Amino acid sequence: MLNKDINSRFEDWLISPRETLDFEVKRWLDMTDVECQGLVAKALIALENHGGGFLLFGYLENEEKVLIPDAKRPESLEPYLTDALNAILKKRAEPVFHVETTVQKHPETGEEFPLVRVAGRSKVPVRSDSATAQGALKQHVYYIRAPGPESRGPLNGSEWDALLRRSVQNQRDEILGLLRSMMPGTGELMPHQKTDEQDVLHQFAQTCTARWKELNATLPPEHPAKISLGYFSFAARILGTAKNKPVAEVMRRNESARKYTGWPTFVSMTSKETKPALVDGGLQAWLAHIVSPDVGHADFWRIEPEGNFFLLRGYQEDSNGDFGTTSQAGKGFEASLPVWRFGEFLLRVVELGEFMFEPDFEILVECTWTGLKGRSVFSHNMRRHIRSGFTTVADEATIHGRFSHQVARDLLPESVKSVIQPLFEHFDFMQAPDEFYTEELGEMKNNRF
Question: InterPro entries from the entry (predicted)?
Answer without folding.
Answer: Schlafen_AlbA_2_dom_sf
